[in-house]
């Protein structure tokens, strides 16, 4: 989870789009589309998206 000053908690697990696609049994393009639509919280670094476990769990609980 991001702290108040924008730093990632070092104990949080970080996933990639392929990781999440495999976990949720969806295609990678579906995961990317949901990220771009704001349905899955993610952080972009360069060309890659990264998803923090704590943010994903919180989002899935809210739905």
Characterise this structure:
It is built from three helices and three strands; from the N terminus they run E-H-H-E-E-H. It is an alpha+beta fold and about 60 residues long. The protein has a single domain (about 15-60), classed as Arc Repressor Mutant, subunit A, CATH 1.10.10. The protein has a three-stranded antiparallel beta sheet with strand order 1-3-2. Strand 2 and strand 3 form a beta hairpin. It starts with 13 loop residues before the first strand and ends with a helix. The relative contact order is 0.21.
CATH topology: Arc Repressor Mutant, subunit A
- Named at the architecture level, the CATH assignment is Orthogonal Bundle
Subunit arrangement of the protein: single chain
Structural class: alpha+beta
Q: What is the total number of structural domains?
A: 1
Radius of gyration: 11 Å
Query: Helical residue percent?
Result: 40-55%
Order of helices and strands: EHHEEH
Shape: globular
Q: Helical segment tally?
A: 3
How would you write the strand order of the largest sheet?
1-3-2
Q: What fraction strand?
A: 15-25%
Mean pLDDT comes to 88
Total strands: the figure is: 3
Main beta sheet strand tally, sense and closure: 3 strands, antiparallel
Give the distance, in angstroms, between the N- and C-terminal Cα atoms.
19 Å
Q: Which regions have little confidence, pLDDT < 50, spanning 5+ residues?
A: none
User: What is the highest CATH level, the class?
Assistant: Mainly Alpha
Domain Helix-turn-helix: 14-58
Keywords: DNA-binding
Protein name: DNA-binding protein
GO molecular function: DNA binding
């Amino acid at each position: 989870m991001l702290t108040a000053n924008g730093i990632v908690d070092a104990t949080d697990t970080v996933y990639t789009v392929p990781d999440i696609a495999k976990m949720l049994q969806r295609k990678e393009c579906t995961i990317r589309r949901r990220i771009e639509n704001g349905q899955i919280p993610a952080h972009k670094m360069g060309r890659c998206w990264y998803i923090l476990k704590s943010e994903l769990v919180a989002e899935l609980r809210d739905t």
